[in-house]
Amino acid sequence: MPFLYKKFFEQVPVNNVSEFKASKGVNQIQFLIPAVNGAILSTQDLMFTGNLQVDTADNTNYSQALFGADGIACDSVLGLHNLIDRVDLISARGNTLIEQRLNYQLISKYQRGVQAESNLENGRFNNQQLVSSQVRGSRNFLGRQAFADDGQSFSIQLNTGLMKNNNQALNLSEIGGLIVRIYLTEPVNGFFNINPASAGTTIGNNFNYSLKNVKMFGRYSYVTDDMLGALNGVRYRKTDNLISVIQSSNDTLTNQPQVNALHKMVYVYQPNKDSANNKDVNNMATNMVSGLKQYLLSMNGVRMPLDYAVDIVPRIQQLPTDTGLGNRVKGNAEQSMLAISALNDQFPPTHSLVNAQNQAKALENQLTNTTESSLNVDVIGMNYSFNFEDYTVAVPNDLMSINVESATNTSEANLPDGSGSSRDIIGDSQTQNLFIEYDAQLNYSSMSSGR
Questions:
Q1: Is residue 449 included in any domain, yes or no?
Q2: Cα 423 to Cα 94, 269, 271, 322, 354, distances in angstroms
Q3: What is the domain range of residue 324?
Q4: I need a labelling partner for 327 at 20 to 30 A (CA). Which of 232, 314, 413, 431 fits?
Q5: pTM
Q6: Domain boundary among 182, 203, 231
Q7: How far apart, in whole angstroms, are the C-alpha atoms of residue 70 and residue 182?
Q8: Pairing assessment for the beta strands 294-299 and 259-271 based on DSSP bridges
Q9: 192 pairs with which residues across the strands?
Q10: How far apart are alpha carbons 314 and 328 in whole angstroms?
C-alpha cells in the first residue's frame, strides 16, 4: 500500500493517573488513539511501554537482596504479558466494543510456543518484554536496588487479533478513533514462588506491583482520499475460549464453535487446584492433562479430520519408578507434530517449545512442587486450515468432540499424586480450555465483527 508519508506519535493514558497498581490503586489503563484527517493506523506498529516496579509491602521495593536462592518470578515465556488479564479494543464512535481478549495470558502463552528457547535467551522477537529462557532470568527483571528509580523498562506489542494478526490498516476516520483498555491481573496470579519452601522472600497477599510512565507508541500512515475511501473494513484472526471440565479417566467433551472461517483448535489443560491465584505454582503453565493415554477427534459423530485415535506411547505411568526425573518423558511424535503444526500455521512445522526436554522439566516441577522452568507448551492442537494459506473451514452448526483418556482421578503409579512433596495433579479434575482461532471481519458501516 503506497503512503504519502508516516508520522510517529506517543499517547499517554486518558485516566490522568501517573502510576497504575494491580491492587490498592487504579488497575485499568486506557488509551485513546484519535482519528486524524487523511491517516490510517497499522495496529501492528503499536507498542505499549512503561516501567515495572514490584513491591513486597507498602512501597517497599523487592530488591535483589531478597531473592535468596529462589525468590519470585513470572512465566519466563510471557514476561510482562503475564501481568495483563484482559484487553478491550473499542471504537470511539458510539463506544462500540470491537474486540475483547479474555484469557489474555493463557492465549499469549500457547501462541508464543512457536518460539525456541534460544529466541527467549537471545532476545529474538523480544522488544524488552522481560522474557527469558530461565525462570530465574525473568525473576531478575523484578528486583531493583533502589526505590528512587522507576523500575524495569518494558515495551511490548499487545497480543490481540486486531493488534497482532491484522495485516490491513484501520481507517480511524470510520471508527472515530481507537480506545485501548488494559486490565492488570492480581499479583498472586501474575507472579509465583520458584520454591514455596525457600528461605528467601516468598510472595504474600501484601505483594503489589505498579506500572509507571506508561505510553502507547505508534505511527500514522497518511494516504490519498481515494485510498482512504476504499477502506471499509478489516479482517483479522480472533480467538475464543470454550471451557469444559475433565472429571474422569475417559471423557468425551463436545463444543459448538459456530464460526464460518475456522483456522485451528488448541486444547490447553489446567488442574483446577492450580488454575488461578495460587502463588506457589505457575498459573500460566501449559502442561498436558495428567497421564494422557490417547485422544480422538470427531465432527458430528464422525472421526474427522483424523480417522484414528492418537496413542501416547510410552506413557508416564508405564515407565519404571527408578527412571531419572529428567528422563521421564511421555511420547508420541505425531501428537507433538500436530501441535507444532497448529501453533506454527505451516507444514512441515518448525521449531517450538513443544519438546521432550520441556515436558520432563514440567513433570519434575509437579513432582517436587517447585517451578524451575516455565518453557513447556504441551497442548493438543489441530490445524483445520491444513496448513494452506487463507484456507478455512465453515463450522456454523457443527459439533466438535474430543475423547480424552488419561489418568485423571485414578490411582495410577508414577504420577503427581500429592505424596511427599508432589502436587496432587492426578486426583484433581482438569479444566479444558478449547481455544478456537477463526477469521473475523470488522465492517465499519455496522461497526460489528462477523464470525
A1: no
A2: 49, 16, 10, 19, 23
A3: 234-443
A4: 431
A5: 0.94
A6: 231
A7: 30
A8: unpaired
A9: 73
A10: 10
